[in-house]
From TrEMBL:
Residues 1-21 form the signal peptide. The keyword Signal applies. Residues 33-48 have a biased composition (Low complexity). It comes from the Bacteria. Residues 32-51 are annotated as: Disordered. This is Lipoprotein. Keywords: Signal.
Amino acid sequence: MKKILALALAACLALTLAACSGNTVSLPQLTLPESSASESGGEQAAPETVGDQEFTDDLSGLCQYLEENYAVAGEKEEMSYQAIGAKGGYRYLFTYEGGTVQAEFYEFDPENLDDAAQACVDSVKEKGSFTMLDNEVQAKLSPNEKYMMIYHDSKEKEEKNAAQRARVEELFDAFHQD
């Protein structure tokens, strides 16, 4: 019974990893600091980064922090986090510069990892990915190994999309690292 439940949860997670159509919102197109004013067109200037001190050091706080810093957009959806041994998980689905972005965030208890969590964390530390239902999923751990991020942009090779991903990774890495 446990194997069937784990397989069902893993299937749910894998299905959500594939970008799917649906109601998505657009993340405002921001002029990132390295862009010149002449390139900005109708874009908004990037807002001042909101620090993490006003957000709790948990998954909800991380999500709020990323929302306030325009790293993600739309309603977050709870994920099937148990399959990878996480404490919780959320997904955002939105568009940015013509690309469909799926950003997922998971929280682990680094002091109390079960076998599934330990295998997932070890794999991401070693090779930057983990295997879910025979699919290799690219992921990134926070420096304290408490959070994991999966970020996929259908136009990730485009310059602005790549710059936005780098910005999101920088915000993710900085969350409660003081």
